[in-house]
């Protein structure tokens, strides 16, 4: 089967790129699993927070805001973000200022989250301009856009070999062979493996495990209006979810690419850090899971053509920023592939380019 654009990977990076590129030519997206969003994208406790990440990530966040707010009716709902600080004033103040938070009094903090232990933390910061992302709706919006432009999304189609010949990329799967003039590597934790399969030098994309548990609403409280909470140094976080509470140890354990699962001991350590700030302890979790957040060595996203490998395009290293950056990251990918001047500033385009890893 022939296409203008072959995309490997059906996470948020791949489906958003497919939607954008479907306006420029024929798209075929290949996903190894039985549905899109199977791995990290389907396990994300996504939040839209403009000031979260490195400068180039913040640029993408800000360029994505209008799309998240308005496209297809929008995918955001109010949440808010609270930082809880202990004795380390330096770390607290740096994070508070970096995320443009205002400092709360103890009474204000308790008004937001009544189960906080007043004796357990010293300071709290708060930012109201933070929203939940309806990740399923966002993914499906991109899927519908792709299909409305005759793009194909093929599942259970893991790549078994990749070759480049006569100006075309050929990807062989267990289902069929697919060809295209541009190959977009949106394979998440598997991005380096796809590059190596294609004969392209890997960039050092490293997957890290992030574990999560859903617990019952503490003390039977209505959590719907609570903000997302996290400890300084991102040592844990908690976020309301469908009448319950998600709690994570914010772990970052390096892993090989695989279908990740939560480690009970890591979760227990995270629960302990969360409980240290709360009056109510965790009982048995309702459910636990894990995903892989994949980063380039410098923790900037990687968006651009590989050097000296015609038509091989990197769209990888989203880390924990994939959902919130997806509108602008996919727009940038389509601009670069289509030869259009990018909407974001040139310095950010350079910071995101895989050319930064080229030895001088």
Structure described in brief:
By secondary structure, this protein is of the alpha+beta class.
Which terms summarize this structure?
360 residues; alpha+beta; nine-stranded mixed β-sheet; eight-stranded mixed β-sheet; 9 helices; elongated
Note down, in words, how this protein is organized.
Helices cover 28% and strands 28% of the residues. Helix 1 runs parallel beside helix 8 (322-338). It is an alpha+beta fold. Strands 5, 6, 7, 13, 14, 15, 16, 17 and 18 form a nine-stranded mixed β-sheet that branches. Strands 1, 2, 9, 10, 11, 12, 19 and 20 form an eight-stranded mixed β-sheet that branches. It has nine helices and 20 strands.
The count of strands amounts to 20
Which percent bin holds the helix content?
Answer: 25-40%
Average pLDDT confidence is 93
- What structural category do the secondary elements indicate? alpha+beta
Whole-angstrom Rg = 21 Å
Q: Number of helix segments?
A: 9
Shape: elongated
Q: Could you give a short account of the major beta sheet?
A: 9 strands, mixed
Order of helices and strands: EHEEHEEHEHEEHEEEEHEEEEEHEEEHH
Strand content: 25-35%
């Amino acid at each position: 089967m022939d296409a203008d654009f072959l995309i490997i990977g059906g996470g948020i990076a791949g489906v958003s790129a497919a939607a954008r590129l479907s306006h420029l030519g024929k798209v075929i997206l290949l996903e190894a699993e039985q549905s899109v969003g199977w791995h990290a994208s389907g396990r994300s406790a996504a939040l839209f927070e403009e000031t979260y990440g490195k400068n180039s990530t913040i640029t993408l966040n800000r360029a994505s805001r209008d799309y998240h707010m308005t496209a297809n009716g929008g995918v955001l709902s109010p949440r808010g973000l609270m930082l809880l600080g202990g004795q380390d004033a330096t770390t607290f103040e740096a994070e508070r200022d970096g995320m443009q938070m205002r400092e709360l009094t103890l009474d204000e903090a308790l008004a937001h989250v009544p189960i906080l232990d007043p004796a357990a933390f010293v300071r709290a910061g708060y930012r109201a301009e933070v929203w939940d992302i309806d990740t399923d709706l966002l993914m499906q919006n991109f899927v519908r856009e792709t299909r409305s432009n005759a793009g194909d999304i093929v599942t259970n189609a893991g790549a078994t070999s990749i070759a480049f010949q006569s100006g075309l990329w050929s990807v062989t799967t267990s289902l069929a062979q697919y060809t295209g003039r541009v190959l977009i590597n949106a394979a998440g934790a598997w991005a380096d493996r796809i590059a190596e399969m294609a004969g392209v030098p890997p960039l050092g994309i490293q997957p890290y495990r992030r574990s999560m548990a859903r617990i019952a609403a503490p003390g039977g409280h209505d959590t719907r209006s609570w903000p997302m909470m996290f400890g300084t140094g991102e040592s844990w976080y908690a976020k309301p979810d469908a009448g319950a509470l998600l709690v994570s140890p914010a772990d970052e354990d390096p892993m090989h690419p695989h279908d990740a699962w939560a480690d009970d001991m890591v979760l227990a350590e995270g629960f302990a850090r969360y409980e240290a700030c709360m009056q109510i302890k965790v009982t048995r979790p309702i459910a636990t899971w894990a995903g892989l957040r994949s980063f380039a060595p410098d923790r900037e996203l990687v968006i651009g053509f590989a050097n000296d490998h015609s038509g091989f395009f990197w769209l990888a290293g989203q880390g924990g920023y994939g959902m919130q950056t997806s509108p602008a990251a996919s727009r940038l990918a389509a601009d670069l592939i289509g030869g259009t001047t990018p909407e974001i500033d040139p310095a950010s385009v350079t910071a995101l380019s895989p050319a930064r890893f080229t030895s001088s």
